[in-house]
Amino acid sequence: MANGAPVCGPISSYSRVRILHLVQSRSPRTIGELTEATGLHANTIREHLQRLIEGGYVIQSTERRTTRGRPRTLYSAATGAPDASSPVARRKVSAAAERGDLMRRLLRTEGSELGREATYQLDALVEHLEESGFEPVVADDGLRVELTPCPHAAARPEHRPVLCQVHLGLMQGVLAEAGGPLSAECVRAADRPEECTVQLTTELLTAAARG
Q: Name one Pfam family in it (predicted).
């Protein structure tokens, strides 16, 4: 890993990344579908899903059946939408905002120039990134987050696109759960593996670009 930085949280193993990628790309998923897609044992899939549920990145539900038979357990990506919101993620967002307010009072600093809601979104995003082993630095305009050195720099090159896509989805979910104008637009392409920049955007900028 770059500078010995540990990879933590939901993407600490590539097997978990693969599972999360499958759930993000199409929800809901069953244990059987994930087992077939990954080749992992069902018990291993369950262990990874439990970690993802505990992290607030996957939600579990029970299938609604209209025919006889035992309903299956379904797994969906937590995206912050009303029908895909995780209680764990909601608690994390609230706690991040409280800690952010406390830190700003102690340091006598203001929040993001983008406003109160965006400030709380950045609080939640920074805590998520730190929990995942990154060292985030938010730009002055609040619309760019530097993640260099990336703890995934030593990952196999063929794994990097999925790693970046999965983590972009997680960041989008965190920002949506916090609620506000910011969204994660992309992970910028870099010349070196250890370089990583996440570009954020606001509803106003998005609307202006469409106009």
A: HTH_5
Question: d(Cα 123, Cα 127) in Å, to the nearest integer?
Answer: 6
Q: From CA 49, how far away is CA 54, in angstroms rounded?
A: 9
**3-state SS, residue 150:** coil
Q: Rounded mean pLDDT of the chain?
A: 88
CA distance 174 to 184: 9
Q: Residue 100 carries which side chain, given as an amino acid letter?
A: G
pLDDT at residue number 7? 58
What is the reported pLDDT for 99? Answer: 96
Measured in Å, how far apart are the chain's first and last C-alpha atoms? 43
Side-chain-facing half-sphere of 52: CA atoms under 13 Å: 31
Q: In 10 A of CB 177, how many CB atoms?
A: 24
Q: For residue 146, what are its two tokens?
A: 């530097």
Report d(CA 118, CA 120) in Å as an integer: 5
Note the pLDDT of residue 204.
55
147 close to 163: Cβ distance less than 8 angstroms: no
CA 14/CA 62 separation, integer angstroms: 27
Nearest to 173 by CA among 86, 71, 61, 44: 86
What is the rounded average pLDDT of the residues 75-101? 95
